[in-house]
Amino acid sequence: MAHPTQLGFQDAASPVMEELLHFHDHALMIVFLISTLVLYIIIAMVSTKLTNKYILDSQEIEIVWTILPAVILVLIALPSLRILYLMDEINDPHLTIKAMGHQWYWSYEYTDYENLGFDSYMVPTQDLAPGHFRLLETDHRMVVPMESPVRVLVSAEDVLHSWAVPSLGVKMDAVPGRLNQTAFIASRPGVFYGQCSEICGANHSFMPIVVEAVPLEHFENWSSLMLEDA
Fold first, then answer.
1. Region 55-70: what's the mean pLDDT?
2. Residues 183 and 83 in one domain
3. Within a domain: residue 81?
4. Theoretical Cys-Cys bridge with 194: which of 68, 162, 165, 220, CB 3.0 to 4.6 Å?
5. What is the CATH number of the domain that holds 196?
6. For residue 2, what pLDDT is reported?
7. Which parts of the chain span the membrane according to its record (predicted)?
8. Cβ–Cβ under 8 Å, residues 152 and 165
9. Going by DSSP bridges, is the β-strand pair 149-156/117-120 parallel, antiparallel, or unpaired?
10. How many domains does the structure of the chain reveal?
11. pLDDT at residue 56 is higher than 80
């Protein structure tokens, strides 16, 4: 859960998000080192009156400042491509959920069950229970088992939406007439918040996403109760 004055990302709740955080730190350190070197060179050139004739015309330096950036780009590209393929990998999901975007709410359908689905609306401010977050809480949460691969099929009924949960490292566009898929594994129990990340109209800010990860036994009890109510 994000908090005021937060500078970094939310705590990772999935293996993919942990990889993304590590890559962010890796790339940021490279940017910091390059910025420090460039700043030092600028200050040195501005503040000194000496001129080095070997720097003015040196093939060795030109070779270095051509090869070194290429090596740095490779060091950034390789882990980036690795994470890209990890995010696209969906192997034998234990559960499949179809998330449909509407103006302005989400509907979820658990396709492995015969009749398990519901709409998820934002809870109005005046109806919030103590401890719930304004503009982020929903009347029905998307409940998933922890430590299990979950596939989410994302589409939209009317206009473009985007199903995004930052702490799970998931963001997928919901396009009318198109079925996109993404996957995640919740590595710990908890409640994870997200929002529609594609401007979709007047109430774009009022269609939150709440994913609740619970142990498998609790998920089975929840699904049984939902099927009985249906």
1. 84
2. no
3. yes
4. 165
5. 2.60.40.420
6. 77
7. 27-51, 63-85
8. no
9. unpaired
10. 2
11. no
